[in-house]
Design a protein that fits this description.
Strand order of the largest sheet: 7-6-19-16-9-10
CATH architecture of the largest domain: Sandwich
Number of strands: 20
Radius of gyration: 18 Å
CATH topology of the largest domain: Tumour Suppressor Smad4
Length: about 290
């Protein structure tokens, strides 16, 4: 197997990676380790590995690294493995993946898989795959402006600190979108493949990661007070039931005249709102144990 390692996302947890590698090596598994050096490099490394005939490509990093590797595997029969080294590790929690080194190594060696159907953000500059969710609005503005040293020092707490900083800076523009054939407006939007958001917190309980389509979560309340309300509801697992929150099941989402609204995919800044969101061309198989 080849392991694609993001040293930036995984620097604080590199000891977990080395312990997983030690266990795998002791069982005689052939290992190749490839480090990423720039955004998009994980995708290129995964695509090259799949073209060489690798059956298992492992993403060692956070959700953004996993999404890049998944994008590189699209169209191939290679399976996706995960060594969760990120800040939130939302997909790992979503799929119930192991975290202890021995359990991670055993899962990768055993190779049992489940199906995951990613989403695809389509913009003027091309497409971007996401495995868990895409956010447009305030949460994406926070991700866009979050300094890496702050994230490195405080982990998930950095998002709370940065959110407080951005309350007076973000202008909360109205987001216009078409969900399948229905046009609507919202203050913020999260298009989710999974049930969880920001770690283990429940948001879209009706989401179906293995199937086509999305759970679209619309936040109608706007302004700093609403952002504080939603932020307070998240750790209580009440965000999905908070006032002004709507849930719509959809297969395609078009953003209408929102090119200046920030977007994020799987916790990484993704420029501005995409032109439309659709299913990836096909599902992938993720190793779960």
């Amino acid at each position: 197997m080849i392991i694609v390692f993001n040293p930036v996302a995984g620097r604080r947890r590199a000891h977990l990676l080395w312990r997983v590698l030690d266990v795998l090596a002791a069982t005689g598994v052939r290992l190749d380790l490839a480090e990423t050096h720039r955004p998009g490099h994980a995708e290129a490394l995964a695509r090259e590995a799949a073209q060489r005939g690798e059956r298992l490509v492992v993403a060692a990093g956070g959700d953004g690294t996993i999404a890049e590797v998944a994008n590189g595997l699209m169209g191939s029969s290679a399976h996706l493995g995960v060594i969760p080294l990120g800040t939130a590790n939302v997909l790992a929690h979503e799929l119930g993946l192991p975290f202890s080194p021995r359990a991670v190594a055993a899962a990768l060696a055993f190779g049992r898989t489940c199906r995951l159907w990613p989403g695809q953000a389509n913009g003027a500059d091309g497409t971007r795959l996401f495995v868990q969710m895409l956010g447009v609005g305030f949460d994406a503005h926070v991700v866009r402006n979050l300094p890496f040293p702050l994230k490195k020092a405080f982990g998930k707490g950095a998002y709370v600190l940065q959110s407080v900083r951005e309350l007076s800076r973000y202008r909360f523009p109205v987001i216009r979108l078409r969900i399948d054939d229905q046009e609507t407006e919202a203050a913020s939007v999260i298009i989710s493949k999974g049930r969880l958001y920001g770690g283990r917190f429940r948001l879209a309980v009706a989401a179906e990661p293995a199937e086509p389509g999305f759970s679209v979560v619309l936040f109608d309340l706007s302004g700093p007070g609403a952002a504080m309300l939603y932020g307070s509801a998240l750790p209580l697992n009440l965000l999905g039931q908070a006032p002004g929150v709507r849930h719509i099941r959809a297969s395609r989402i078009d953003f209408l005249q929102n090119l200046s609204v920030p977007a994020q995919t799987d916790g990484d800044a993704a420029g501005w709102a995409p032109l439309w969101v659709s299913d990836a061309p096909q599902p992938i198989q993720v190793v779960v144990g």
